[in-house]
Each structure stands twice: as structure tokens, then as C-alpha cells.
Write a sequence for this structure.
């Protein structure tokens, strides 16, 4: 799963990126290149699987983060477009919204102003991309090319929203083929948004009014919101595990920010997690919660999807209760699922296949 980090200059994107990935990207303003890093997704259920199933290696699911330089108000598509080219292919967007005091730099706290300012820039950049894509599709569409006609119709509908200052994600009645077309263009406003309210050290619980404003904005626009102190989290990421846990507890926090951020992105994208086990490796995978068993197999290996026969599954809860795969089988709790079954979040799965 991939997530792009966007926001106005100085919102704290790179600080958050460093905190989440344990990276050391420079936080001097005016960077021109994106930072790319990978963060493991914390998962208590994976730890439980590893507790009961013997293995040599435990591999969590990961989230790839792409931190791009700040997009300025009034920069226009010419400025935002090249920056956004780095996040066209990601699955979701994290929009960092400054809720910490930056009055030293002469900036007041006004998260809704900031959210709307950035959104205008994103809409302008998408407008330019969609218009030029429509230009390209128009001629073959006129001469009867069915594929180009379908693309032109999708782009026209997207442009109608953008011209009306609405993000493309507000269009919710795409057919499945149309959804595939719109995704292929990588319009940033077509992606789901996790708003990250970057709070100061005086509001670690995220209870201040600016954070509430971000939450209600997210709720009313089909997004999600989490409150995180990027600066504090970046400091935490520098500590070793024991010191980090001690400091988290002293601050009244239960876990580092990657937890709520990763869960927020999973909820936004409607993802489920499943596990595979072997003596070599136990591993967590993410897949659409609507996926069938063969589609889940395809996340592990395309051969497993192609040659899918059936899958044997059990829940992590069953594993905790029965303490071994053998005992689960003996208790009749092992389920066999076929090609048309949907997966269940939190299942341990073994795929039987033949190619
Ligand atoms: N007090 C406080 N300061 C923060 C926080 N997060 C970031 N900052 C400060 O804000 C400044 C900008 O942080 P960056 O992480 O570089 O922000 P950015 O959004 O990546 O900025 P650009 O890439 O230039 O757009 C730095 O001086 C940070 O130390 C925070 O949670 N609290
Ligand atoms: Mg930055």
C-alpha cells in the first residue's frame, strides 16, 4: 500500500515522514525532490500468530510513504503539477494540516483555510491534467474508437466536477470500468484522503478546537482524520524501543503515530489483513476487504491465483484459543474455502494451488 504525503509548506510533512519511516530526510524548507520510505504496519494480531506458530522470520505488512515538497497557495498547476507527478500512482493521500503554533513565522492556526487552500491547488493541477488527457482522447473518440470514447466520457465527467471546484472523489457513481479508467490517470483529487492534524506538544491528545475542525471536515467529506505531533514523534523515533515505550507512557500515549496513520489508511481504502505461515516466514498482507480467496492468493504470488484450488483458513482468535494449527484442525475449526469465497479480515490462510 502506498500513500502520498501532501500539504502546504511548513505543515510538518517531512517531520512526519521521518517519524513514520524512521528516516532522516532533511527538513530545510524549499526541497525540490520527494522522499520515499517504507514503514512497517504495527499489528498485534501478527505478534499473536508468531507466538503460536514456529518460524524463522516475521514480516509485517508495509506502507510506502512518498513525502513531496509543500505546495504553495497561488502557485498554479505549473508549480503543483510536477510535484504531484510523484504521487499520481499512490493508493491514498495523507494531507498534513498544521494545528501547531507557528506564529513565529507569522502564520495563524486555521486548518480549514489551509485545507481549502491546498485543495484549490490540487484541483487546478488535476484540471490541467484532465484537460490535456481529454484533448488526446477527443480525436480518436470522434473517429469512433470505443476505448477513446469511454475515456473521453470519464474525463468529461471529472472535468465537470473540477470546474465546479469539487474534488473528483466526490463523484461516487462510477461503473467499475469507469473507476479503472479514472484511476489510470492518477488524478490526486480522485484519491481518498487521511487528514493528519499535526498538533503541538500542548495538545497531544488532539482535543483542541482546530483538531475538532479537521475531524468534522474529514467526516463531512468522506475522509478520515487523526491527530499526531510530528515533531514529538520524530524525536520518539530516534529512541531505542525500551526508551520509546517509557516516553510514550510518560506522555499518556499508547502507541507511536504509525499505528493510527496505518489504520486510518486501511479504513479509507477498505483493506483487510490476512496472514500466511510457514517454517520460514510468517507474513501479514493487505488486500481489498471485498477480495475473493483467489484474489488474496494473487497478492502473495500470481501463480497461486492462477492455479488456485482452495484455501484453508482459521482466525487468529481460534489460534489464541487452541494454541496450534493442529489443535484447530482437531477441533474442526479449520475452514476450507473455494474460488468464490470472500476473505475474512484477520484470517490465517494456506493456499493450495497447482500450475
Ligand atoms: N512545534 C512543532 N513544530 C513542528 C511540528 N512539525 C513540524 N514542525 C516544525 O515546522 C517546520 C517545518 O517542518 P517540515 O517537516 O520541514 O515541514 P514540511 O511540511 O515538510 O515543509 P516543506 O517540505 O518545506 O513544505 C520545522 O521547523 C519543524 O521543526 C510539530 O508537530 N510541532
Ligand atoms: Mg518537507
Amino acid at each position: 500500500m502506498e500513500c502520498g504525503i501532501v500539504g502546504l509548506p511548513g505543515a510538518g510533512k517531512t517531520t512526519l515522514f521521518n517519524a513514520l519511516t524512521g528516516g532522516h530526510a532533511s527538513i530545510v524548507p524549499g526541497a525540490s525532490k520527494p522522499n520515499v520510505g517504507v514503514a512497517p504496519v504495527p499489528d498485534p494480531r501478527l505478534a499473536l500468530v508468531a507466538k503460536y506458530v514456529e518460524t524463522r522470520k516475521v514480516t509485517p505488512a508495509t506502507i510506502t510513504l512518498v513525502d513531496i515538497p509543500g505546495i504553495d497557495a497561488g502557485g498554479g498547476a505549473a508549480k503543483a503539477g510536477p510535484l504531484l507527478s510523484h504521487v499520481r500512482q499512490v493508493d491514498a493521500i495523507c494531507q498534513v494540516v498544521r494545528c501547531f503554533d507557528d506564529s513565529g513565522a507569522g502564520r495563524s492556526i486555521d486548518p480549514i483555510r489551509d485545507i481549502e487552500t491546498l485543495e484549490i491547488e490540487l484541483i487546478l493541477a488535476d484540471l490541467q491534467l484532465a484537460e490535456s488527457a481529454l484533448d488526446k482522447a477527443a480525436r480518436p473518440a470522434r473517429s469512433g474508437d470505443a476505448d477513446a470514447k469511454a475515456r473521453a466520457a470519464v474525463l468529461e465527467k471529472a472535468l465537470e466536477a473540477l470546474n465546479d471546484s469539487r474534488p473528483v472523489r466526490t463523484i461516487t457513481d462510477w461503473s467499475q470500468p469507469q473507476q479503472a479508467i479514472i484511476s489510470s490517470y492518477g488524478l490526486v483529487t480522485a484519491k481518498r484522503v487521511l487528514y493528519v492534524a499535526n498538533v503541538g506538544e500542548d495538545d497531544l491528545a488532539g482535543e483542541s478546537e482546530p483538531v475538532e475542525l479537521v475531524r468534522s471536515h474529514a467526516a463531512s467529506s468522506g475522509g478520515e482524520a487523526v491527530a499526531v505531533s510530528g515533531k514529538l514523534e520524530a524525536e520518539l523515533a530516534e529512541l531505542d524501543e525500551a526508551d520509546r515505550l517509557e516516553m510514550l507512557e510518560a506522555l499518556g500515549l499508547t502507541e507511536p503515530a504509525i499505528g493510527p496513520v496505518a489504520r486510518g489508511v486501511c479504513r479509507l481504502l477498505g483493506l483487510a489483513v490476512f496472514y500466511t505461515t510457514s517454517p520460514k516466514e510468517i507474513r501479514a498482507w493487505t488486500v481489498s476487504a471485498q477480495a475473493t480467496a483467489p484474489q488474496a492468493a494473487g497478492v502473495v504470488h500470481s501463480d497461486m491465483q492462477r492455479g488456485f484450488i482452495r484455501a484453508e483458513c482459521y482466525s487468529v482468535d481460534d489460534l489464541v484459543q487452541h494454541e496450534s494449527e493442529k489443535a484447530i484442525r482437531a477441533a474442526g475449526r479449520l475452514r476450507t474455502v473455494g474460488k468464490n469465497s470472500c476473505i475474512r479480515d484477520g484470517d490465517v490462510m494456506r493456499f493450495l494451488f497447482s500450475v
Summary: The longest strand covers residues 281-288. The CA atoms of residues 292 and 342 lie 4 Å apart.
